[in-house]
Automatic annotation (TrEMBL):
The protein's name: Sucrose-6-phosphate hydrolase
Keywords: Carbohydrate metabolism, Cytoplasm, Glycosidase, Hydrolase
One Pfam family of this chain: Glyco_hydro_32N
One GO term of the biological process aspect: carbohydrate metabolic process
UniProt-recorded Gene Ontology molecular function terms: beta-fructofuranosidase activity
Record-linked PROSITE patterns: GLYCOSYL_HYDROL_F32 (PS00609)
Domain Glycosyl hydrolase family 32 N-terminal: 33-346
E.C. code: 3.2.1.26
GO cellular component, one term: cytoplasm
Entry function: Enables the bacterium to metabolize sucrose as a sole carbon source.
Reaction equations catalysed: Hydrolysis of terminal non-reducing beta-D-fructofuranoside residues in beta-D-fructofuranosides
Coiled coil: none
Length: 483
Protein backbone atom coordinates (compact mmCIF):
# COMPACT_ATOMS: atom_id res chain seq x y z
CA UNK A 1 0.00 0.00 0.00
CA UNK A 2 1.41 3.44 -0.88
CA UNK A 3 1.34 6.58 1.30
CA UNK A 4 -2.11 7.61 0.06
CA UNK A 5 -3.45 4.14 0.86
CA UNK A 6 -1.88 4.21 4.32
CA UNK A 7 -3.50 7.58 5.08
CA UNK A 8 -6.91 6.23 3.98
CA UNK A 9 -6.38 3.08 6.07
CA UNK A 10 -5.52 5.17 9.17
CA UNK A 11 -8.67 7.25 8.66
CA UNK A 12 -10.68 4.04 8.21
CA UNK A 13 -9.35 2.48 11.41
CA UNK A 14 -10.28 5.66 13.27
CA UNK A 15 -13.84 5.56 11.87
CA UNK A 16 -14.12 1.88 12.73
CA UNK A 17 -13.20 2.66 16.35
CA UNK A 18 -15.89 5.34 16.48
CA UNK A 19 -18.30 2.85 14.90
CA UNK A 20 -17.59 0.31 17.64
CA UNK A 21 -18.59 2.91 20.26
CA UNK A 22 -21.90 3.61 18.52
CA UNK A 23 -22.60 -0.11 18.12
CA UNK A 24 -23.43 -0.74 21.77
CA UNK A 25 -26.53 1.46 21.65
CA UNK A 26 -27.61 0.54 18.12
CA UNK A 27 -30.84 -1.49 18.05
CA UNK A 28 -30.47 -2.23 14.33
CA UNK A 29 -26.95 -3.61 14.47
CA UNK A 30 -27.10 -7.08 12.93
CA UNK A 31 -26.38 -10.18 14.95
CA UNK A 32 -25.76 -12.79 12.27
CA UNK A 33 -25.32 -10.93 9.00
CA UNK A 34 -22.06 -9.33 7.92
CA UNK A 35 -22.20 -5.55 8.13
CA UNK A 36 -19.61 -2.78 7.93
CA UNK A 37 -17.80 -1.63 11.06
CA UNK A 38 -18.38 1.91 9.88
CA UNK A 39 -19.91 3.50 6.81
CA UNK A 40 -21.34 1.86 3.73
CA UNK A 41 -21.10 -1.67 2.31
CA UNK A 42 -22.20 -2.99 -1.08
CA UNK A 43 -21.25 -5.94 -3.31
CA UNK A 44 -19.49 -8.99 -1.92
CA UNK A 45 -16.08 -9.26 -3.61
CA UNK A 46 -13.22 -11.77 -3.77
CA UNK A 47 -15.21 -14.60 -2.16
CA UNK A 48 -13.07 -17.69 -1.67
CA UNK A 49 -11.82 -20.31 0.72
CA UNK A 50 -8.03 -20.17 0.86
CA UNK A 51 -5.97 -22.55 2.99
CA UNK A 52 -9.01 -23.40 5.08
CA UNK A 53 -10.08 -19.81 5.71
CA UNK A 54 -13.13 -18.23 4.12
CA UNK A 55 -12.48 -14.70 2.85
CA UNK A 56 -15.28 -12.24 2.31
CA UNK A 57 -14.19 -8.97 0.76
CA UNK A 58 -16.74 -6.33 -0.06
CA UNK A 59 -17.30 -2.86 -1.47
CA UNK A 60 -16.67 -0.54 1.44
CA UNK A 61 -17.00 3.23 1.97
CA UNK A 62 -15.86 3.49 5.58
CA UNK A 63 -15.94 7.27 5.72
CA UNK A 64 -19.56 7.80 4.75
CA UNK A 65 -22.70 5.76 5.48
CA UNK A 66 -24.20 7.09 2.23
CA UNK A 67 -21.36 5.77 0.09
CA UNK A 68 -18.64 7.64 -1.76
CA UNK A 69 -15.04 6.50 -2.01
CA UNK A 70 -15.03 2.76 -2.76
CA UNK A 71 -12.41 0.56 -1.10
CA UNK A 72 -12.47 -3.15 -0.25
CA UNK A 73 -13.35 -4.30 3.26
CA UNK A 74 -12.35 -7.76 4.46
CA UNK A 75 -13.64 -10.32 6.94
CA UNK A 76 -12.52 -13.90 7.46
CA UNK A 77 -13.89 -17.01 9.13
CA UNK A 78 -13.31 -20.75 9.34
CA UNK A 79 -16.86 -21.69 10.29
CA UNK A 80 -19.23 -18.84 9.33
CA UNK A 81 -19.82 -18.23 13.05
CA UNK A 82 -16.56 -16.71 14.32
CA UNK A 83 -15.47 -13.78 12.21
CA UNK A 84 -12.40 -11.60 12.12
CA UNK A 85 -12.43 -8.05 10.79
CA UNK A 86 -9.23 -7.67 8.78
CA UNK A 87 -7.78 -4.25 7.94
CA UNK A 88 -9.26 -2.98 4.67
CA UNK A 89 -6.77 -4.22 2.07
CA UNK A 90 -7.46 -2.06 -1.00
CA UNK A 91 -7.96 1.69 -1.27
CA UNK A 92 -8.14 3.90 -4.35
CA UNK A 93 -4.51 4.98 -3.99
CA UNK A 94 -3.21 4.68 -7.56
CA UNK A 95 -3.89 6.75 -10.63
CA UNK A 96 -5.54 3.79 -12.37
CA UNK A 97 -8.11 3.24 -9.58
CA UNK A 98 -8.31 6.71 -8.15
CA UNK A 99 -12.12 7.05 -8.29
CA UNK A 100 -12.80 3.67 -6.71
CA UNK A 101 -11.61 0.14 -6.12
CA UNK A 102 -14.67 -1.42 -7.71
CA UNK A 103 -15.96 -4.98 -7.57
CA UNK A 104 -13.98 -8.06 -8.41
CA UNK A 105 -13.27 -11.62 -7.48
CA UNK A 106 -10.68 -14.06 -6.15
CA UNK A 107 -9.08 -16.91 -8.03
CA UNK A 108 -7.01 -19.48 -6.15
CA UNK A 109 -4.19 -21.03 -8.15
CA UNK A 110 -1.00 -22.85 -7.10
CA UNK A 111 -1.49 -21.92 -3.45
CA UNK A 112 -1.84 -18.23 -4.20
CA UNK A 113 -4.80 -15.90 -4.01
CA UNK A 114 -5.29 -13.69 -7.07
CA UNK A 115 -7.68 -10.76 -6.69
CA UNK A 116 -8.98 -9.14 -9.87
CA UNK A 117 -10.94 -5.90 -9.69
CA UNK A 118 -11.96 -2.84 -11.64
CA UNK A 119 -10.16 0.42 -11.06
CA UNK A 120 -12.74 3.10 -11.68
CA UNK A 121 -11.47 6.47 -12.92
CA UNK A 122 -13.69 9.49 -13.51
CA UNK A 123 -11.90 12.23 -15.36
CA UNK A 124 -12.48 15.86 -14.43
CA UNK A 125 -14.43 17.72 -17.09
CA UNK A 126 -17.68 17.94 -18.95
CA UNK A 127 -18.39 14.28 -19.67
CA UNK A 128 -21.43 11.99 -19.68
CA UNK A 129 -19.36 9.26 -17.94
CA UNK A 130 -21.04 6.65 -20.10
CA UNK A 131 -19.48 7.18 -23.50
CA UNK A 132 -16.64 9.33 -22.29
CA UNK A 133 -14.86 10.57 -19.19
CA UNK A 134 -14.51 7.20 -17.50
CA UNK A 135 -11.87 4.47 -17.36
CA UNK A 136 -12.47 0.90 -16.21
CA UNK A 137 -9.06 -0.65 -15.61
CA UNK A 138 -8.62 -4.33 -14.84
CA UNK A 139 -6.20 -4.75 -11.96
CA UNK A 140 -4.55 -7.70 -10.19
CA UNK A 141 -3.30 -8.07 -6.62
CA UNK A 142 -1.80 -11.29 -5.27
CA UNK A 143 -1.39 -12.85 -1.88
CA UNK A 144 0.34 -15.91 -0.45
CA UNK A 145 -1.47 -15.82 2.88
CA UNK A 146 -4.70 -13.89 2.34
CA UNK A 147 -3.58 -11.07 4.61
CA UNK A 148 -0.64 -9.38 2.93
CA UNK A 149 -1.15 -8.24 -0.62
CA UNK A 150 1.24 -7.48 -3.47
CA UNK A 151 1.45 -4.18 -5.30
CA UNK A 152 -1.34 -3.53 -7.75
CA UNK A 153 -0.67 -4.60 -11.32
CA UNK A 154 -2.54 -2.97 -14.18
CA UNK A 155 -3.67 -5.72 -16.57
CA UNK A 156 -6.11 -4.15 -19.02
CA UNK A 157 -7.30 -0.72 -20.07
CA UNK A 158 -9.67 0.69 -22.70
CA UNK A 159 -7.42 -0.43 -25.59
CA UNK A 160 -7.92 -4.05 -24.54
CA UNK A 161 -11.71 -3.84 -24.75
CA UNK A 162 -13.82 -3.99 -27.92
CA UNK A 163 -14.75 -0.70 -29.60
CA UNK A 164 -18.49 -1.18 -29.56
CA UNK A 165 -18.68 -0.82 -25.77
CA UNK A 166 -19.21 2.30 -23.67
CA UNK A 167 -16.87 3.07 -20.77
CA UNK A 168 -18.96 0.79 -18.54
CA UNK A 169 -17.02 -2.50 -18.37
CA UNK A 170 -16.35 -3.99 -14.95
CA UNK A 171 -16.48 -6.65 -12.24
CA UNK A 172 -14.07 -9.38 -13.43
CA UNK A 173 -14.62 -12.99 -12.35
CA UNK A 174 -12.11 -15.68 -13.32
CA UNK A 175 -12.33 -19.44 -13.84
CA UNK A 176 -10.23 -22.21 -15.34
CA UNK A 177 -11.43 -24.57 -18.04
CA UNK A 178 -9.38 -27.17 -19.91
CA UNK A 179 -6.10 -25.74 -18.68
CA UNK A 180 -6.81 -22.17 -19.73
CA UNK A 181 -7.98 -19.17 -17.72
CA UNK A 182 -11.08 -17.18 -18.57
CA UNK A 183 -12.43 -13.93 -17.24
CA UNK A 184 -15.97 -12.62 -17.54
CA UNK A 185 -16.77 -8.93 -17.16
CA UNK A 186 -20.05 -7.04 -17.34
CA UNK A 187 -20.62 -4.32 -19.91
CA UNK A 188 -22.81 -1.74 -21.54
CA UNK A 189 -22.54 -1.68 -25.31
CA UNK A 190 -22.86 1.45 -27.36
CA UNK A 191 -26.56 1.69 -28.11
CA UNK A 192 -27.26 0.80 -24.49
CA UNK A 193 -27.54 -2.96 -24.43
CA UNK A 194 -26.10 -5.09 -21.65
CA UNK A 195 -23.69 -7.93 -22.37
CA UNK A 196 -20.83 -9.88 -20.83
CA UNK A 197 -17.29 -9.96 -22.18
CA UNK A 198 -15.09 -13.06 -22.13
CA UNK A 199 -11.30 -12.76 -22.02
CA UNK A 200 -8.77 -15.61 -22.18
CA UNK A 201 -5.29 -16.02 -20.70
CA UNK A 202 -2.51 -18.62 -20.24
CA UNK A 203 -0.89 -16.97 -17.22
CA UNK A 204 -3.54 -14.86 -15.40
CA UNK A 205 -1.62 -11.70 -16.43
CA UNK A 206 -1.96 -11.33 -20.17
CA UNK A 207 -5.58 -11.29 -21.24
CA UNK A 208 -7.20 -11.02 -24.65
CA UNK A 209 -10.79 -10.31 -25.48
CA UNK A 210 -12.31 -13.39 -27.10
CA UNK A 211 -16.07 -13.08 -27.34
CA UNK A 212 -19.20 -11.71 -25.84
CA UNK A 213 -22.35 -13.18 -24.32
CA UNK A 214 -25.51 -11.35 -25.28
CA UNK A 215 -29.20 -11.90 -25.76
CA UNK A 216 -31.07 -11.61 -29.04
CA UNK A 217 -33.28 -8.78 -27.92
CA UNK A 218 -32.92 -6.06 -25.31
CA UNK A 219 -32.33 -7.40 -21.82
CA UNK A 220 -31.19 -4.36 -19.88
CA UNK A 221 -28.75 -1.59 -20.81
CA UNK A 222 -25.96 -2.80 -18.49
CA UNK A 223 -25.00 -6.14 -16.96
CA UNK A 224 -23.14 -5.86 -13.68
CA UNK A 225 -21.28 -8.49 -11.66
CA UNK A 226 -21.41 -11.48 -14.03
CA UNK A 227 -20.43 -14.92 -12.76
CA UNK A 228 -20.15 -18.24 -14.60
CA UNK A 229 -20.04 -21.70 -13.03
CA UNK A 230 -21.09 -25.30 -13.50
CA UNK A 231 -23.51 -26.74 -10.97
CA UNK A 232 -25.08 -30.18 -10.89
CA UNK A 233 -24.46 -30.63 -14.61
CA UNK A 234 -25.85 -27.23 -15.61
CA UNK A 235 -23.91 -24.28 -16.99
CA UNK A 236 -25.05 -21.23 -15.10
CA UNK A 237 -24.53 -17.58 -15.93
CA UNK A 238 -25.40 -15.15 -13.15
CA UNK A 239 -25.56 -11.40 -13.73
CA UNK A 240 -27.23 -8.23 -12.51
CA UNK A 241 -28.99 -6.49 -15.40
CA UNK A 242 -30.05 -2.87 -15.11
CA UNK A 243 -32.91 -1.44 -17.11
CA UNK A 244 -35.56 -4.18 -17.11
CA UNK A 245 -39.14 -2.97 -16.82
CA UNK A 246 -41.06 -4.00 -13.70
CA UNK A 247 -43.80 -6.60 -13.99
CA UNK A 248 -46.40 -7.61 -11.44
CA UNK A 249 -44.60 -10.76 -10.30
CA UNK A 250 -41.10 -10.12 -11.62
CA UNK A 251 -38.43 -7.46 -11.65
CA UNK A 252 -40.03 -5.41 -8.92
CA UNK A 253 -36.80 -3.81 -7.70
CA UNK A 254 -35.04 -1.04 -9.56
CA UNK A 255 -32.27 -3.43 -10.71
CA UNK A 256 -32.32 -7.20 -10.96
CA UNK A 257 -30.01 -10.12 -10.21
CA UNK A 258 -30.61 -13.53 -11.67
CA UNK A 259 -29.29 -16.53 -13.52
CA UNK A 260 -29.80 -18.21 -16.87
CA UNK A 261 -28.90 -21.71 -18.03
CA UNK A 262 -26.45 -21.80 -20.94
CA UNK A 263 -26.48 -24.56 -23.53
CA UNK A 264 -22.69 -24.53 -23.64
CA UNK A 265 -19.79 -23.03 -21.75
CA UNK A 266 -19.00 -19.40 -22.69
CA UNK A 267 -15.67 -20.81 -23.87
CA UNK A 268 -17.51 -22.63 -26.67
CA UNK A 269 -19.81 -19.76 -27.65
CA UNK A 270 -19.65 -18.86 -31.32
CA UNK A 271 -20.74 -15.65 -33.07
CA UNK A 272 -24.19 -17.15 -33.54
CA UNK A 273 -24.81 -18.28 -29.97
CA UNK A 274 -27.06 -16.27 -27.71
CA UNK A 275 -27.99 -16.17 -24.06
CA UNK A 276 -31.61 -17.26 -23.74
CA UNK A 277 -33.16 -14.61 -21.51
CA UNK A 278 -36.39 -16.58 -21.24
CA UNK A 279 -34.60 -18.84 -18.72
CA UNK A 280 -33.71 -15.84 -16.51
CA UNK A 281 -34.78 -16.40 -12.91
CA UNK A 282 -34.22 -13.90 -10.16
CA UNK A 283 -32.05 -14.98 -7.26
CA UNK A 284 -34.22 -13.21 -4.72
CA UNK A 285 -37.60 -11.50 -4.69
CA UNK A 286 -37.17 -9.31 -1.61
CA UNK A 287 -36.62 -5.57 -1.50
CA UNK A 288 -32.93 -5.78 -0.71
CA UNK A 289 -30.81 -7.97 -2.89
CA UNK A 290 -28.26 -7.26 -5.60
CA UNK A 291 -24.88 -8.11 -7.12
CA UNK A 292 -24.36 -11.62 -5.70
CA UNK A 293 -21.18 -13.60 -6.25
CA UNK A 294 -20.48 -17.32 -5.88
CA UNK A 295 -17.42 -19.44 -5.08
CA UNK A 296 -16.54 -23.08 -4.68
CA UNK A 297 -15.35 -23.99 -1.20
CA UNK A 298 -12.89 -26.71 -0.23
CA UNK A 299 -15.79 -29.08 0.44
CA UNK A 300 -16.96 -28.58 -3.15
CA UNK A 301 -19.99 -26.47 -2.21
CA UNK A 302 -21.03 -23.66 -4.55
CA UNK A 303 -21.82 -20.83 -2.13
CA UNK A 304 -23.56 -17.58 -3.00
CA UNK A 305 -23.47 -14.35 -1.01
CA UNK A 306 -25.40 -11.29 -2.15
CA UNK A 307 -25.52 -7.67 -1.17
CA UNK A 308 -28.60 -7.26 1.07
CA UNK A 309 -29.26 -3.90 -0.50
CA UNK A 310 -29.96 -2.38 -3.88
CA UNK A 311 -28.65 0.85 -5.41
CA UNK A 312 -30.93 3.78 -6.31
CA UNK A 313 -33.96 2.34 -4.46
CA UNK A 314 -36.86 4.58 -3.51
CA UNK A 315 -36.82 3.18 0.04
CA UNK A 316 -34.10 3.86 2.56
CA UNK A 317 -32.14 2.75 5.61
CA UNK A 318 -32.08 6.06 7.49
CA UNK A 319 -32.28 4.37 10.91
CA UNK A 320 -28.85 2.81 10.38
CA UNK A 321 -27.43 5.78 8.46
CA UNK A 322 -28.12 7.84 11.60
CA UNK A 323 -25.97 5.33 13.45
CA UNK A 324 -23.12 5.63 11.00
CA UNK A 325 -23.54 2.59 8.81
CA UNK A 326 -25.61 1.20 5.96
CA UNK A 327 -26.22 -2.18 4.29
CA UNK A 328 -25.19 -5.77 4.90
CA UNK A 329 -24.53 -9.05 3.11
CA UNK A 330 -26.94 -11.97 2.90
CA UNK A 331 -26.35 -15.28 4.63
CA UNK A 332 -24.03 -17.56 2.66
CA UNK A 333 -26.26 -19.92 0.68
CA UNK A 334 -25.35 -23.29 -0.78
CA UNK A 335 -26.64 -23.67 -4.34
CA UNK A 336 -27.99 -26.71 -6.11
CA UNK A 337 -30.04 -27.37 -9.20
CA UNK A 338 -32.81 -29.86 -8.35
CA UNK A 339 -35.52 -30.93 -10.79
CA UNK A 340 -34.50 -28.06 -13.05
CA UNK A 341 -34.85 -25.48 -10.27
CA UNK A 342 -32.14 -23.47 -8.57
CA UNK A 343 -32.31 -23.87 -4.83
CA UNK A 344 -30.54 -21.84 -2.14
CA UNK A 345 -30.03 -23.09 1.41
CA UNK A 346 -28.10 -21.24 4.10
CA UNK A 347 -24.84 -23.03 4.93
CA UNK A 348 -25.48 -25.72 7.55
CA UNK A 349 -22.81 -24.22 9.82
CA UNK A 350 -25.40 -21.59 10.77
CA UNK A 351 -27.32 -24.23 12.74
CA UNK A 352 -24.63 -23.66 15.39
CA UNK A 353 -26.30 -20.32 16.07
CA UNK A 354 -29.42 -22.11 17.29
CA UNK A 355 -29.88 -21.54 20.96
CA UNK A 356 -33.00 -22.34 22.87
CA UNK A 357 -35.89 -23.83 20.86
CA UNK A 358 -39.36 -22.32 21.23
CA UNK A 359 -42.80 -23.76 20.73
CA UNK A 360 -45.70 -22.14 19.03
CA UNK A 361 -49.06 -23.42 17.89
CA UNK A 362 -50.90 -22.36 14.75
CA UNK A 363 -53.29 -19.50 15.43
CA UNK A 364 -51.56 -18.50 18.67
CA UNK A 365 -50.04 -15.06 19.06
CA UNK A 366 -46.70 -15.57 20.71
CA UNK A 367 -44.52 -13.02 22.40
CA UNK A 368 -40.92 -13.60 21.31
CA UNK A 369 -38.25 -13.42 23.99
CA UNK A 370 -35.55 -12.35 21.54
CA UNK A 371 -35.28 -10.40 18.33
CA UNK A 372 -33.17 -12.91 16.45
CA UNK A 373 -34.55 -16.31 15.61
CA UNK A 374 -35.14 -18.92 12.95
CA UNK A 375 -38.45 -20.58 12.16
CA UNK A 376 -39.19 -23.68 10.09
CA UNK A 377 -42.82 -23.99 9.06
CA UNK A 378 -44.78 -26.65 7.22
CA UNK A 379 -47.93 -25.03 5.86
CA UNK A 380 -51.10 -27.05 5.53
CA UNK A 381 -51.40 -28.38 2.00
CA UNK A 382 -53.70 -26.47 -0.29
CA UNK A 383 -54.74 -23.90 2.33
CA UNK A 384 -54.25 -20.19 2.72
CA UNK A 385 -51.34 -19.33 4.93
CA UNK A 386 -50.26 -16.31 6.92
CA UNK A 387 -47.47 -15.35 9.30
CA UNK A 388 -47.51 -11.95 10.98
CA UNK A 389 -44.65 -10.44 12.93
CA UNK A 390 -45.79 -7.48 14.97
CA UNK A 391 -44.05 -4.76 16.93
CA UNK A 392 -46.33 -2.04 18.28
CA UNK A 393 -48.32 -0.83 15.25
CA UNK A 394 -45.76 -2.13 12.77
CA UNK A 395 -46.03 -5.41 10.91
CA UNK A 396 -44.35 -7.81 8.55
CA UNK A 397 -46.92 -10.02 6.84
CA UNK A 398 -45.98 -13.15 4.92
CA UNK A 399 -48.86 -14.83 3.15
CA UNK A 400 -49.91 -17.35 0.57
CA UNK A 401 -53.28 -16.73 -1.04
CA UNK A 402 -56.00 -18.86 -2.63
CA UNK A 403 -54.84 -17.72 -6.06
CA UNK A 404 -51.30 -19.04 -5.46
CA UNK A 405 -49.60 -15.73 -4.76
CA UNK A 406 -46.83 -15.59 -2.19
CA UNK A 407 -46.46 -12.14 -0.62
CA UNK A 408 -44.22 -10.17 1.66
CA UNK A 409 -45.73 -6.98 3.02
CA UNK A 410 -44.17 -4.47 5.37
CA UNK A 411 -46.07 -1.71 7.15
CA UNK A 412 -45.39 1.97 6.59
CA UNK A 413 -42.83 2.96 9.21
CA UNK A 414 -41.02 -0.36 9.41
CA UNK A 415 -40.70 -0.56 5.64
CA UNK A 416 -39.42 2.97 5.02
CA UNK A 417 -40.92 2.73 1.54
CA UNK A 418 -40.81 -1.07 1.27
CA UNK A 419 -44.41 -2.16 0.78
CA UNK A 420 -45.19 -5.25 -1.24
CA UNK A 421 -43.27 -7.95 -3.08
CA UNK A 422 -45.11 -10.90 -4.58
CA UNK A 423 -44.56 -13.89 -6.82
CA UNK A 424 -46.66 -16.76 -8.09
CA UNK A 425 -45.92 -20.15 -6.55
CA UNK A 426 -47.87 -23.31 -7.50
CA UNK A 427 -47.97 -24.64 -3.97
CA UNK A 428 -46.51 -23.69 -0.62
CA UNK A 429 -44.67 -26.65 0.92
CA UNK A 430 -42.22 -25.17 3.39
CA UNK A 431 -40.88 -21.93 4.80
CA UNK A 432 -37.71 -21.14 6.64
CA UNK A 433 -37.42 -17.69 8.12
CA UNK A 434 -34.28 -16.06 9.46
CA UNK A 435 -35.01 -12.96 11.48
CA UNK A 436 -32.13 -10.66 12.39
CA UNK A 437 -32.62 -7.34 14.22
CA UNK A 438 -33.37 -5.42 11.01
CA UNK A 439 -33.06 -7.98 8.22
CA UNK A 440 -35.30 -10.90 7.27
CA UNK A 441 -34.56 -13.76 4.88
CA UNK A 442 -37.43 -16.02 3.87
CA UNK A 443 -36.72 -19.32 2.12
CA UNK A 444 -39.80 -20.65 0.33
CA UNK A 445 -40.23 -24.31 -0.67
CA UNK A 446 -36.83 -25.56 0.45
CA UNK A 447 -34.99 -22.62 -1.05
CA UNK A 448 -36.67 -22.50 -4.48
CA UNK A 449 -37.51 -18.84 -3.85
CA UNK A 450 -35.96 -16.40 -1.43
CA UNK A 451 -37.00 -12.98 -0.14
CA UNK A 452 -34.41 -10.76 1.55
CA UNK A 453 -35.45 -7.49 3.08
CA UNK A 454 -34.45 -4.85 5.60
CA UNK A 455 -37.10 -3.56 8.03
CA UNK A 456 -37.05 -1.23 11.00
CA UNK A 457 -39.28 -2.08 13.94
CA UNK A 458 -39.55 0.81 16.42
CA UNK A 459 -38.88 -1.30 19.50
CA UNK A 460 -37.23 -4.55 20.47
CA UNK A 461 -40.31 -6.54 21.51
CA UNK A 462 -42.17 -8.53 18.88
CA UNK A 463 -44.86 -11.16 18.50
CA UNK A 464 -45.52 -13.77 15.87
CA UNK A 465 -48.71 -15.47 14.77
CA UNK A 466 -48.78 -18.27 12.18
CA UNK A 467 -52.02 -19.41 10.58
CA UNK A 468 -52.53 -22.38 8.27
CA UNK A 469 -49.58 -24.51 9.38
CA UNK A 470 -49.20 -28.17 10.40
CA UNK A 471 -45.86 -27.81 12.06
CA UNK A 472 -43.93 -24.83 13.40
CA UNK A 473 -40.47 -24.99 14.90
CA UNK A 474 -38.49 -22.07 16.26
CA UNK A 475 -35.03 -21.42 17.64
CA UNK A 476 -33.67 -18.24 19.14
CA UNK A 477 -30.37 -17.49 17.45
CA UNK A 478 -27.25 -16.31 19.16
CA UNK A 479 -24.89 -13.73 17.76
CA UNK A 480 -22.01 -14.44 15.36
CA UNK A 481 -18.74 -13.55 16.97
CA UNK A 482 -16.52 -10.74 15.74
CA UNK A 483 -18.90 -9.18 13.23
C1 LIG B 1 -22.80 -3.17 -8.37
C2 LIG B 1 -21.70 -2.17 -8.70
C3 LIG B 1 -20.60 -2.80 -9.53
C4 LIG B 1 -19.43 -1.91 -9.24
C5 LIG B 1 -19.64 -1.60 -7.78
C6 LIG B 1 -19.19 -0.25 -7.33
O1 LIG B 1 -23.51 -2.81 -7.24
O2 LIG B 1 -22.24 -1.04 -9.35
O3 LIG B 1 -20.88 -2.91 -10.91
O4 LIG B 1 -18.21 -2.53 -9.48
O5 LIG B 1 -21.03 -1.73 -7.54
O6 LIG B 1 -19.35 -0.10 -5.95
Amino acid sequence: MNEKGKTLLAETLKREKEGALLAASDPYRLKFHLMPKAGWMNDPNGLCQFKGVYHVFYQYSPLDAKGGMKAWGHQTTRDFIHWEHEPAPLFPDRDFDRSGVYSGSAFIHDDRMYLFYTGNVKLDGDYDYINNGREANTILVESGDGHRFSDKELLMTRKDYPDDYTCHIRDPKVWEEDGRFYMIQGGRKTGDTGAALIFGSQDLRHWTFEKELKTDGYFGYMWECPDYFELDGEKVLSFSPQGLGSERYRFQNVYQSGHVVLQKSPVDFTEDDRVDESTFEEWDHGFDFYAPQTFLDEKGRRILIGWAGVPDADYDNEPTVERGWQHALTLPRVLHVKNGKMIQIPVEELEELRDEAFKINAGEKKRLDRETFEMAIRPETGKEFQTVFECGCEKIVIEYTKDCVFRLQISEEAGRGRKLREIRVDELRSLRIFMDTSLIEIYVNDGENVFTSRFYFPRRDRTVCVEGADRIKGWYLSEMEGN
